[in-house]
Amino acid sequence: MVVETEQRGLGWLGIVRLGLVQSALGAIVILTTSTLNRVMVVELALPAMLPGALVGWHYAVQMSRPRWGYGSDVGGSRVPWIIGGMMVLAAGAVGAAASTALMGSSPLLGIATAIIAFSVIGAGVGAAGTNLLALLATATAPSRKAAAAAIVWIMMIFGFVLTASIAGQMLEPFSLSRLIVVTTIVSTVAVVVASLAVWGIERTHATPTKAVVETDEGGGFREAFREVWAEGQARRFTIFVFVSMLAYSAQDLILEPFAGIIYGFTPGESTSLAGIQNGGVLLGMIATAVVGTTIGKSRAGFMRLWTVGGCIASAMALAALAAAAVVGPSWPLEPTVFALGLANGAFAVAAIGSMMTLASAGRPGREGTRMGLWGAAQAIAFGVGGFLGAAALDGARVILAEVGPAFALVFPPEATLFVVAAICATRVGKSDADDMKLPAMPSAELVAAE
Prior knowledge:
- By secondary structure, this protein is mostly helical.
- The chain is 76% helix and 2% strand.
- The chain has one domain: Growth Hormone, Chain: A (Up-down Bundle), CATH 1.20.1250.20.
- Helix 1 (12-43) runs antiparallel to helix 5 and helix 10 packs antiparallel against helix 16 (403-425).
């Protein structure tokens, strides 16, 4: 059965409201993936593989994103998934901070509770993030999708920057109890902001949509997933998302420890460094959005070109970080990290613009499932990349006598991944006739149980 709704598409104010949700989500995420990671490695002197495994696990939980997107596809409402997901995410973040503090006195118990907390974080991010993007894709008019994607992601990075700056100051002087308090405050504010932002938005702002309601006899989620994977455009974009996010995440968990060990940064200073990086991301996104708005409409393949260029520039920035590891504190770390963020932002917003368009390509009523597929690809890449990056650092530190060369050994492979991502980006937007020969279905792990 097909249910049709006749409502108005999102205006600019509605798009900004959804951007506030993304800002709130990012505010919590940056504390759990950056600050807690640094505290475990530097303050508690634990192996880098521990936070890498925890963050990797929370991404593994997000492999069920397609199922959550499908749930809102057939349920007729995405807002309850968004608000509920934010509440779950906030609870998991506070639990993760408490678990990190517990590791200082009881490592085994702290690690055990951290596994539970990061499981909750993964569920919250997946439920809220997938359905937020699906709502944006279905409720935004086609002419506004690229701009809407840029606005929402820019606001997410703004949330990163603002939280990193404010939380960095609030964490000084650092203590584990202060870490819990700051995480609780940030998480509570984020839930309130997100809830107010989406309240009533589906009743007043949505484009004409078709929600496909499946029955068990009609195949349900598994059949919907098979249909989406059979789409060449969706498959190609999934591959690009996986490779590019693998490249990005491989450096994500070692950047703050790098600043702490090589440059002697305090927790507050390294958190602020993450703010500098995300400030670069923000500027890169704005620049891409502005240029894309002015000339992108008249030039086919502009977004693809910008995506490729951003990936290449990211590879060059990572090569510079490898040099910084060898040279030491005399290297200008902040400008290098800012340049990395600038390049990341350029390729990200261009890719997101493509994603918003591709989400509505194909059978109507599958937007949530497509977003879930791409979210799952990102989650798998982040989990694998974060863990491999951390594990590579631990291995290099065992093999090499000095820590600087160990970091220098880790960054070049990550740069290479960005080059591969650039190659994959050249295929995004190609016609199905040019599609690569790919397996009919992805691995079974991507298909969540009904």
